[in-house]
Design a protein that fits this description.
Blueprint lengths: L4 E2 L4 E2 L4 E2 L4 E2 L4 E2 L4 E2 L4 E2 L4 E2 L4 E2 L4 E4 L19 E2 L4 E2 L4 E3 L3 E2 L4 E2 L4 E2 L3 E3 L4 E2 L4 E2 L3 E3 L4 E2 L4 E2 L4 E2 L4 E2 L4 E2 L19 E2 L4 E2 L4 E2 L4 E2 L4 E2 L4 E2 L7 E4 L4 E5 L15
Parallel strand pairs: 1-4, 2-5, 3-6, 4-7, 5-8, 6-9, 7-10, 8-11, 9-12, 10-13, 11-14, 12-15, 13-16, 14-17, 15-18, 16-19, 17-20, 18-21, 19-22, 20-23, 21-24, 23-26, 24-27, 25-28, 26-29, 27-30, 28-31, 30-32
Antiparallel strand pairs: 32-33
Length: about 250
């Protein structure tokens, strides 16, 4: 007798393997040649493409919890979680309902991806990364270990975010009713790079091909193709020409 529970309406395609003590909910669709580890939970209506790997303890399609005083979690009907083909999902990753993950994405162990998030193709979400709700992450993005992407943020294509980077969306730091009118995440434009342990304050824009140095505190928008450093961050010099995205020879396929 199987140790896993698979609801009758779930559809699991051929040559997909499943470990011990898994749960697959109603109307789940799992593609061909998937590898599902032990203790994996796949909630109702989730759609998983071909050749996807879900490692031990992953939770896919989880419904959000709403605290009585939550400022960003909304009561709403969420679309099913969708993971496209050829993705790798690490151990104990939690991906909420209402999230769409593009093809060939890697989500490393212990990462959390909230509802109403889209992630483009070929992106890497590192170990322990947290992406809050209402975020868009582009293609070929790298979010390294323990990065925190606050709610209502946008990260465009080819952005690199080094380990330990923090972002914020609330200039009022949880006080006064006025704050509810002004929640705004960060925007990291195409090719932006953020150094280790940098902090980006609410609503700030790091423009195309800009570089934020390690440990910097971004309190103003960062101009395109400039390096900023310090607390608060100030323009230091131009990004070297050979480092510009246009000179890397990369092709987006």
């Amino acid at each position: 007798m199987s140790s896993s529970i698979i609801k009758p309406s779930a559809k699991i395609s051929s040559q997909t393997t499943m470990g011990e003590f898994c749960f697959v909910g109603e109307n789940v669709a799992i593609g061909h040649n998937c590898v599902i580890g032990n203790h994996v939970i796949i909630h109702d209506d989730t759609v998983i493409g071909d050749n996807v790997r879900l490692d031990d303890g992953a939770v896919i399609g989880k419904l959000p919890m709403k605290a009585a005083i939550s400022a960003t979690t909304k009561d709403q009907q969420l679309a099913p979680c969708r993971i496209e083909k050829d993705c790798l999902i690490g151990a104990k990753v939690i991906i909420y309902r209402g999230t769409k993950i593009g093809e060939r994405v890697l989500v490393a162990d212990l990462a959390t991806i909230r509802e109403d998030v889209t992630i483009g193709k070929y992106t890497i979400v590192g170990r322990g990364v947290a992406i809050e709700n209402f975020c868009h992450i582009g293609n070929y993005v790298k979010l390294e270990t323990n990065v925190y992407i606050t709610a209502y943020s946008e990260v465009e294509d080819r952005v690199f975010v080094a380990p330990g980077v923090m972002t914020s969306n609330d200039n009022y730091i949880g006080r006064t009713e006025e704050r509810f009118k002004h929640f705004k995440g960060v925007t990291l434009k195409k090719g932006a790079r953020i150094g280790v342990n940098a902090t980006i304050l609410p609503g700030k824009i790091v423009h195309e091909d800009a570089l934020v140095a390690a440990g910097a505190l971004v309190t103003k928008d960062v101009p395109a193709k400039k390096i900023v450093a310090g607390i608060p961050a100030k323009v230091l010099r131009d990004v070297p020409v050979e480092q510009l995205l246009e000179n890397q020879g990369w092709k987006d396929s």
